[in-house]
Structures are given as C-alpha cells and as structure tokens.
C-alpha cells in the first residue's frame, strides 16, 4: 500500500496490457468468475489502498486473447505513471502482462478516444493436431479452405454498414453500425490469418463472421450468398461462431498514442511452421 498525499492531484494512467484468455471469463468483471479486469483491479486496490475502476478500449469474451489491449485508471498516489507497469507486473499472475504505462490527459479515455481496434483470427488447417498452436488457433481440418474466396468475402464488408447479421443477442449496444476500415486474409502454409480493423466491434461479431467465412472457404456458401446474407441482415442464418481461442485483440489505434509503436503495434507474431 502506498502513502497518499492530500496535496497530490488525481492522475490518469494508460496501460498496454497483454493476456492469455484461456483461463479467463473475458475482460469484464463478474461475480465468482476470474476476469482480466478483476485481476488487475485487485492489484491496483492492494497497491493504492482504495478501490479504482479500470476502463478498457474493448471488452473481450471468454477465452479471447489480447496482444495490446489498452485501459486506463485514475489514482491519487505519488507513483509516477511510467512506474505502474513494473509495479503491477510484480503482483499480477503469469497470464497477464503490462507492457507499458504512461500519463494521459484528463480528457483522454481508453475507449472513447480510440479510433480503431484490430483483431486477428487464426485457423490451423493441418490434419495433425499440435499442442503448441492449439491455445491460439482453431484446428479446422475437416475440409480444404480457399483463402482467396474468404478474402473476397471480407472485402464486401469494407465501409460503414449495418452488420446486424453478426451481432449476438445479449448486447447492450443500441445499433449495429460498424465502419470496417481494413480486412486481410492470407495463408502461411497450414495457417490462415484473418485480420479485421474497424472503429468498433459488435458483441460476438468476429467469431460469427469467421464461422460464416469458413462456409465460404469450403464452398458451402457462395460469395453472393455471403453478401446477401449480411446485407439483408439475416441473423437467423448465422448459426455457427468460431471458437474463442483463435481470436486475439491485436491493437488499438489513437490519434495521438501515449505509447511508442514498439510497445503496441506488432506484439503478437503470426503462427507459422516450417515446411517439411
């Protein structure tokens, strides 16, 4: 616990956070469940001696990973902003890591100041299972996947659209408008990497989208069917979500990032195995 000073003004600190989602029930604090927010807040409360709330750029679901999640909190202690990363890492469990901490202005907000978020989904297509890639990929070997068809389907989403077809029930969001800024689907031998960048993401959006893209990649749905389905908002036909462990929040973009690029930009390597 640190000593407080009545003369010290309130400070706002931003964090770049990595976590392995395997043993978490997502980001958001929940009663009687292990979550990323709760683990970090528990340490913050211990260090500060009072309760604080951690605000993130985008909540992740159960089992989803993050390579560079961004969050902020406010405190009234004498600890310098740049010291918070090492302070927290001294107490946090091994499946959470604070890469950096920095001071931000009173008006800065991890969620509302963000201009975009980027996710990657990884599929592993070899017939042979691999223990060392299974925590970070969907082992899909049931049928060949055509990454070019999947890329063509992704490109139809570019722009601002009402993506209710990929909006899971239970969300508190009042609309399904999303500005999709960049998309990418490429293959590295047995791995297919799907990346999507948007101003925001709907609840369950990426996993529902990947589930449908796999149907396109196997030829079960045509490119025309895929496009008509989401344009006509036929949510009832999007029945299969990809499993969470293949999904990772790659990074979050800000107009004036408080962190240098090496801290947040490319912190999750793409899975690839050498050819035999």
Verbal overview:
The protein has 276 residues and is α+β, with helices and mostly antiparallel strands. Helix content is 20%, strand content 28%. The protein has six helices and ten strands, in the order E-H-E-E-H-E-E-E-H-E-E-E-H-H-E-H. The chain has helices at residues 36-48, 84-89, 147-155, 205-217, 223-231, 261-264; strands at 11-19, 55-56, 65-75, 96-104, 114-124, 138-139, 159-162, 177-188, 191-198, 247-254. Strands 1, 2, 3, 4, 5, 6, 7, 8, 9 and 10 form a ten-stranded mixed β-sheet that branches. The longest helix is centred in the first third of the chain and has 13 residues, at 36-48.
Per DSSP, what share of the residues sits in E-state strands of 2 or more residues? Answer: 25-35%
Question: What form results from the Cα inertia axes?
Answer: globular
Distinct helical segment count: 6
Low-confidence stretches: none
Quaternary state, please?
single chain
Distance between the termini: 54 Å
Q: What structural class do the secondary elements suggest?
A: alpha+beta
Q: How many beta-strand elements?
A: 10
Average pLDDT across residues?
Answer: 94
Comma- or semicolon-separated keywords:
alpha+beta, 10 strands, 20% helix, 10-stranded mixed beta sheet, 276 residues
Task: Produce a short descriptive summary.
The chain is an alpha+beta fold. It contains six helices and ten strands.
List the helices and strands and how they pair.
Layout: E1 11-19, H1 36-48, E2 55-56, E3 65-75, H2 84-89, E4 96-104, E5 114-124, E6 138-139, H3 147-155, E7 159-162, E8 177-188, E9 191-198, H4 205-217, H5 223-231, E10 247-254, H6 261-264
Helix pairs in contact: 3-4
């Amino acid at each position: 616990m640190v000593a407080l000073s009545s003369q010290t003004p309130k400070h706002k600190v931003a964090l770049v956070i990595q976590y392995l989602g395997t043993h978490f029930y997502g980001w958001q604090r929940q009663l009687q469940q292990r979550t990323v927010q709760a683990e970090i807040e528990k340490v913050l409360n211990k260090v500060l001696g009072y309760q604080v709330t951690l605000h993130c750029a985008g909540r992740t679901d159960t089992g989803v990973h993050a390579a560079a999640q961004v969050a902020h909190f406010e405190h009234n202690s004498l600890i310098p902003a740049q010291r918070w990363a090492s302070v927290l890492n001294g107490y946090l469990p091994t499946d959470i890591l604070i890469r950096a901490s920095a001071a931000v202005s009173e008006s800065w907000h991890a969620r509302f100041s963000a201009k975009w978020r980027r996710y990657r989904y990884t599929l592993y297509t070899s017939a042979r299972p691999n223990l060392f890639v299974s925590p970070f990929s969907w082992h899909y070997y049931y049928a060949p996947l055509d990454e070019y068809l999947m890329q063509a389907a992704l490109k139809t989403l570019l722009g601002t659209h009402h993506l209710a077809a990929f909006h899971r029930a239970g969300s508190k969001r009042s609309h399904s408008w999303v500005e999709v800024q960049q998309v990418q689907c490429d293959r590295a031998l047995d791995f297919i990497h799907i990346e999507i960048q948007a101003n925001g993401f709907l609840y369950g959006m990426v996993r529902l989208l990947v589930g449908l893209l796999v149907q396109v990649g196997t030829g079960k749905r045509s490119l025309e069917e895929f496009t008509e389905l989401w344009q006509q908002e036929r949510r009832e036909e999007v029945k299969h979500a990809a499993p969470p462990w293949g999904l990772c929040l790659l990074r979050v973009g800000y107009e004036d990032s408080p962190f240098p690029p090496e801290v947040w930009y490319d912190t999750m390597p793409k899975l690839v195995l050498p050819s035999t």
